[in-house]
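TICKET: design request
STATUS: open
ATTACHED STRUCTURE:
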């Protein structure tokens, strides 16, 4: 039978390990969960236990189950899986730039006359941003989501602008379209900080 003291120790150990696995400080986790860093500190020291609702929020945030938080288990394997998923998301961006480089070299050495072969690298920017957005769950950071979504908007505008620039008058106005999109994104980011999911 599990005693209350042992349960506190297990939960505090798991809270510390999952927070460190996600490279978060107590303050950053507190902001994400809308709790004080003092509460996080008490939970991690085993002075108090979060209630079941808070455990559920923490489990959702880390993309794990409540059982993972309350059971004594080997977290080394989970950490390896989590790190592998992060590496896969970064490698997918590397693959995009590798393909862009191959296309660039092909355009340079082929007999086709391409005016601006360097545009393939510009096209790779929004594509890699969209791929990183797809993998955003692995990063567990609202700030990361905000930055990648912002980059997606502006790099897509940049690619469109550079592609159509000499042929379309006033194509620079595409950046004006991005301003309300950025404001919507910023509003979403701020609201997500102030209100729990």
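STATUS: resolved
RESOLUTION: sequence designed for all positions
ATTACHED SEQUENCE:
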């Amino acid at each position: 039978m599990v005693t209350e003291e042992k349960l506190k120790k297990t939960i505090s150990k798991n809270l510390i390990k999952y927070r460190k696995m996600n490279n978060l400080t107590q303050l950053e986790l507190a902001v994400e969960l809308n709790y004080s860093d003092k509460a996080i500190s008490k939970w991690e020291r085993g002075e108090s236990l979060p209630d079941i609702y808070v455990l559920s929020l923490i489990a959702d945030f880390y993309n794990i189950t409540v059982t993972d938080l309350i059971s004594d288990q080997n977290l080394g394997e989970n950490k390896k899986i989590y790190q592998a998923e992060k590496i896969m998301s970064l490698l997918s961006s590397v693959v995009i730039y590798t393909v862009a480089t191959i296309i660039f070299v092909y355009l340079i050495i082929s007999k086709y006359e391409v005016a601006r072969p360097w545009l393939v690298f510009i096209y790779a920017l929004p594509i890699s941003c969209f791929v990183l957005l797809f993998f955003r769950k692995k990063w567990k950071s609202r700030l990361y989501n905000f930055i990648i979504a912002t980059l997606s908007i502006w790099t897509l505008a940049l690619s469109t602008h550079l592609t159509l620039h000499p042929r379309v008058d006033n194509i620079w106005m595409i950046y004006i379209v991005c301003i309300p999109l950025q404001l919507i994104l910023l509003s979403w980011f701020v609201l997500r900080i102030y209100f729990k999911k």
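CLOSING REMARK: The chain has a mean pLDDT of 85. Residues 75-194 form one domain.
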